[in-house]
Structure formats: structure tokens, C-alpha cells
Write a structure and sequence with these properties.
It is built from eleven helices and 25 strands. With about 425 residues, it is of the alpha/beta class.
């Protein structure tokens, strides 16, 4: 795959719609604008040199080698020039001037806009300890990140993964299948603590241990040890050193919204947007991982969701607004994760639940967990149970009241409950 370059030499530096970020959100926004017959000029500024590609496979199929890079491209390269979408790649925006409607890149190139769509995503958090910059310490956010890891793996026997979220668990699963000795360190009392209930956390902890991963909870990192500039181990609280040749840090991302906040946009955890994904700056929108919106699935609280669904649906919201058919963003959140032969699918947000009901036997490795709050269903976690994921969506969308006894009965299909619930 050749490195992407701009589709044509720029004869102008102003676009009707300028999109910052070449991930799912940015790519979908440009595509949706054309699908909705937007006639004006469009450009995408991307920090990486590659055409837009899928990020979720980076810690799964791409890291494992099961998918080549060409197979995770969001669109074939010819799509962009065919749809008159300019690709300005290998550049990052460092300044936004909302009065002049202009952005400046790190290389001092400037581009004007009629409307600006900010889809810059986030940057992986770094450990705030000594040794974080040693060779052999990696994060998983870009193709280049994973390519560096893969180039080192032949000389690696032991890997230490820091962080028990989706990225850390997925990387641990892939590397253990590759025959590496993997130790996973999680500072919290359980993995997936931010996104799932205790039962699901314990299930995944046991699965990883069964596959040979040394899962250590309540374990914080003091520093990364090194020899001759190369990581050689991780010192944890208490004085023990986990020997390794590679360290993978998966402790979340920081939303990439600095230029917007410096320009006066409102926001704390990301940049705040309204139901049409508009920021507080005129003609500036934000979507995807960096956008914080008020969600009916979080009791109206402002949340920032890191998911393909969120990026795609918010992109469609902006595209419809810019083409004269505004529709407020109200999509139900959903997520997925592949680890070993387990397919986890989540719909809704389980944070704040006061009851979790298991459907099926956890030991069967095919089950679902329904999460309720004040008697209403707010989310499902479905492991190798796609039917429950599909059918449970309606129950989450309506925040239905269903008897826990009926939810636990696998002999009753969720679709039948949908037709006989109190909302």
C-alpha cells in the first residue's frame, strides 16, 4: 500500500467543509455529505500518511496478522478522488481561528473553511513514571504503532500489558495466542471496571488466566526498568519486577481538542456539543471520540463515547444538518470486542446500574447480562449471544420495565419481551 498523498495540488486553500481527522468519524462525515448530495468542496486533514482505515482491528486482526492493511481501509483509495474529496494527509492542525474561519497545521499550512468538522479523536495516555520512553514501550492507536510492535515481536518472549480495558485485553489475547508469556497489570480491583459489571469482569479475568495470561489486579506501576535504553521489566508497587522485553500501555486516551479549547470552545472531557453536534464556536462541529454530548442513555449526563457507532452516527447527524435536513443525535450506544473465540457485544450504557441479571450459564461461554436501573433496562452485555444483542436493543431504547425473572429465563426470547413490556 503506497503512502497516501493529496489528490491534487491545491489551487485554493478554502473549503466549504473542512474535516480535521481521518478516522471513522471524518471519513464517514465526508462520505455522508456526498451521499446526501452536498455540492460544495470537501477536504479531510489527517495526521497520519495513510488513507482512512479502521482502528478496532489494530489490537485484533491486524496485530494477529489475520488482516492485511488493505483489508482494513474504510474505503478503497480511488473513492476519495472519485467523490471530489481532497485528502491532506500527514498534517496535524495546531490552531483554529473561528473568526477568520481558518486552521493552521504544524507545518504552517493554512486552510479556510465554511464549516469545520472536528473528528480528531484522541491520543493514547502515557504512564507518568520513569522509563515510559524506553524502546519496547508501545501504545496501540495507529497503524504505525502496531507495525513497530510487530517488527519487534520475533525477538520478544515476555510481554507486560498495562491496563485491563478493551485494548489491553485484546492485545493480551492476541499475543498469548502467538505464544508470548503475557502479564496483564490492572490498577483497579477488576478488569473492564469502567464499562462492565462485576460478573463480566470476573468471566474475562478467568478466560485470560485459562489461556495463560498472568492477570494481576490492584497492581500499580512504579516505573519501567531498562537496560541500554531498552525496556527490560516493570516495577510494580511493593517492589516486584515483572520481567519482559515489551510493554504495552493501554490506559485510555485523551481527547484531541486542544486547538478548539484554545479557540474558546466549551468543554472539559473533550469538547461539548449539542444534539446536532455543534460546538460553541460558530460553524464548528465535533464528532466521535473527542465530542461530549448529553445522552438519554446516561440519564441526560454529558458523555464522551469511544466507539465506531458513535463516530459514524454523529457524522451522519452533521451531514444531514449541513444538507438541510437536521436530525438530532439520539442513537443508542453499542460496542464490541473480540478476545480468543469470544465475541462480546454491548448495547446501552451500564454505568449506574443497580441490578445485573444473567441470562444463560456463564460457564457455557454463551450468555448475556441485562443491566437495570430503578427497574428499567439500560444495557446488555452479550457474550457469544448475538441474538440477545439484536433483540435486546429495543428494550434498551425504550428503557423497558421487565421482571428480572423473565429476563433470566432463556426459554423466553427477548423479542417476545419487547412486545409485552411496560415503558
Amino acid at each position: 500500500m503506497p503512502t497516501a498523498v493529496p489528490n491534487r495540488a491545491m489551487s485554493e486553500d478554502r473549503y466549504d467543509v473542512l474535516i480535521v481527522g481521518a478516522g471513522y468519524g471524518g471519513a464517514q462525515a465526508a462520505s455522508a455529505l456526498r451521499q446526501n448530495h452536498f455540492p460544495g468542496s470537501i477536504a479531510i486533514i489527517g495526521e497520519e500518511p495513510d488513507y482512512p482505515y479502521e482502528r478496532p482491528p489494530l489490537s485484533k486482526d491486524y496485530l494477529s496478522g489475520e488482516k492485511a492493511f488493505e483489508h482494513i481501509l474504510i474505503r478503497r483509495p480511488a473513492f476519495w478522488p472519485e467523490n471530489n474529496i481532497d485528502m491532506i494527509l500527514g498534517q496535524s492542525v495546531v490552531h483554529v481561528d473561528p473568526e477568520a474561519r481558518r486552521v493552521r497545521t504544524r507545518d504552517d499550512a493554512t486552510f479556510g473553511y465554511g464549516s469545520l468538522i472536528w473528528a480528531a479523536g484522541g491520543t493514547p495516555r502515557r504512564l507518568s513514571c520513569a522509563g515510559e520512553t524506553l524502546r519496547g514501550v508501545h501504545r496501540i492507536r495507529s497503524r504505525a504503532d502496531v507495525d513497530r510492535m510487530m517488527s519487534e515481536l520475533p525477538d520478544v518472549c515476555r510481554v507486560c500489558v498495562v491496563g485491563g480495558g478493551y485494548i489491553g485485553l485484546e492485545a493480551a489475547a492476541v499475543l498469548s495466542k502467538k505464544g508470548k508469556a503475557v502479564t496483564l497489570l490492572e490498577a483497579a480491583p477488576r478488569v473492564l471496571a469502567r464499562v462492565a459489571g462485576t460478573s463480566l469482569s470476573r468471566f474475562y479475568e478467568e478466560e485470560h488466566r485459562t489461556h495463560g495470561v498472568d492477570v494481576r489486579l490492584n497492581t500499580s506501576v512504579e516505573r519501567i526498568e531498562g537496560r541500554d535504553g531498552q525496556a527490560s521489566g516493570v516495577l510494580v508497587a511493593g517492589g516486584h519486577v515483572v520481567d519482559c522485553e515489551m510493554v504495552i500501555v493501554g490506559i485510555g486516551i485523551d481527547p484531541a481538542v486542544g486547538p478548539l479549547l484554545r479557540a474558546g470552545a466549551q468543554g472539559a472531557n473533550g469538547v461539548d456539543v449539542d444534539a446536532l453536534c455543534r460546538t460553541s464556536l460558530p460553524s464548528v462541529y465535533a464528532i466521535g471520540d473527542c465530542a461530549a454530548h448529553e445522552s438519554q442513555y446516561a440519564d441526560g449526563q454529558r458523555v464522551r463515547l469511544e466507539s465506531v457507532q458513535n463516530a459514524n452516527d454523529q457524522a451522519m447527524t452533521v451531514a444531514k444538518g449541513l444538507t438541510g435536513t437536521p436530525v438530532p443525535y439520539q442513537a443508542v450506544p453499542w460496542f464490541w470486542s473480540n478476545q480468543y473465540d469470544l465475541r462480546l457485544q454491548t448495547v446501552g450504557l451500564s454505568s449506574g446500574h443497580d441490578l445485573a441479571v444473567v441470562r444463560g450459564e456463564i460457564s457455557s461461554r454463551s450468555f448475556s447480562i441485562a443491566y437495570l436501573k430503578e427497574g428499567r433496562i439500560i444495557a446488555f452485555d452479550c457474550v457469544n449471544a448475538t441474538k440477545d444483542f439484536v433483540q435486546g436493543r429495543k428494550l434498551v431504547e425504550t428503557r423497558a420495565r421487565v421482571s428480572p425473572r423473565f429476563l433470566a429465563d432463556v426459554g423466553i426470547a427477548l423479542k417476545d419481551l419487547c412486545a409485552n413490556v411496560s415503558v
